[in-house]
Amino acid sequence: MTMEAALPLENFIQAVQSQLDKAQTAMAVKARNLNLPMTFAIKDINLDLRAHVEFSQGEIRIRPATANEPDASVFHLVFTAITRPMIEENAVAFTDDPDDQAIDELEDDLTDEERRKLEWVGVRTVRKLREMDKEGSSRVVGRVTNLPVSRLRRALERASAPLVNQVVPVSTAPDDPPDFRKILRVRGRNLVRDGVLPRVSIAGQPASIVKSSEHELLIAPDANQWAGILQVETAPEVVTSMSFDLTPHAPVPIPVPVMEGAT
Amino acid sequence: MNGRRPLFETLSDIASGLMDATALGPVHARSIDLNLPLDIRLPVAGGDLMGDLPLFRMRTAFDTEPVRLHMVLQEVLL
Description:
The complex is a heterodimer of chains A (about 260) and B (about 80).
Chain A: E1 7-8, H1 9-33, E2 38-56, E3 59-64, E4 73-80, H2 84-90, H3 112-120, H4 126-134, H5 138-145, H6 149-159, E5 163-169, E6 184-189, E7 199-202, E8 205-206, E9 208-212, E10 216-220, E11 227-235, E12 238-245
Antiparallel strand pairs in A: 1-3, 2-3, 2-4, 5-6, 6-10, 7-8, 7-11, 9-10, 11-12
Chain B: H1 7-23, E1 31-41, E2 50-52, E3 67-77
C-alpha cells in the first residue's frame, strides 16, 4: 500500500458521518423494497484509528499509521444516532440571516489560515466580526489569532462597503390611482451604515428614500430618474454605483388640465 | 481500481445479510453487536471513504493498521 496523504481531521469525521448516513439509507430502502416492517438502524459506532497527527496551515491533519509505526496516536471516535430535535437543540446557528456574509468572503484580505483562525474563535460571519469590533474586542481577537488589528479593520472596512446588485420597479396594484407614485426597489448589501440613511442620487440628482434596510432601499424617483447612474453613499467617500435603464416602466406623464382663461 | 468498497457499502452489506438471516426465522434478532477490523483508505477529491474487511491475514510493514470498528445495530419499525 502506498503512503497515504494526510487529511484534515474534520474532513475525516465528516466522511465517516456521510458513510453512516448512506448505510442507514441503504438499509431503509432495502427493507421498504422487500416490504419488511422492520429494519436495523445504526445505534452506536466506535472507531479506533491509529494515525499520525500533523499540524499545518492552521489545520489538524491525520495520516493513518502503517504497521511498523508503533508510536502513532490513537483516535477513539464514538458516533451515536441522534434524533432531529437533538440535532436542532445542539446545532450551532452559524448564520440566521441568509444574506449574511460568510467570513470566507474576506479571502482577498485574509489568507485561508487567518480565516480559519477567526473561525476557531467563533467568528464565522462578517457581521460577527463587525459586532466584535464595535464592542472593542478586535484587540483580543487579534491577540488570540495573531492577526494585526489594522489588517482586521481594513478587511472589515472592505467587507462593509455598500454594493448594489439589482434595481427593479415595484409592481403596482390594479386598483392604485393613476397618479400613485411608482417606486424603485434597490437590492444589495451594506446599504445602510450604522443606522444612518444613505445619500442616494440618480442621474446626478438626489432621490427620495421611502424605506431603507441593510439589504434593500425603496426609492421614489422623479419622472426623469428612471434611467441613469444610481449612486448610494453610506458614508463620506464610501460610494457604490450602478447604471440602469427602466424607462419602459416610467410612469406616463398625466396631462395637466388647462383652465379656461388661464394664461 | 482495487476492488475495495466504500465504508457504507460494507456496513449496509453486513446489516443487510443479518436482516435476511433474521427476518423470516422463528427466532428474531433485535439488536446486533459487531466488532470488526477494517482497512480504510482516506477519501480523495471528495470521493467516498473506503472501508472494507481486510484482504489478508498477514500484513506487511507498508500496510496501514486496520481500524477497529465496533457497531451496534438495533431493530426499528419502518
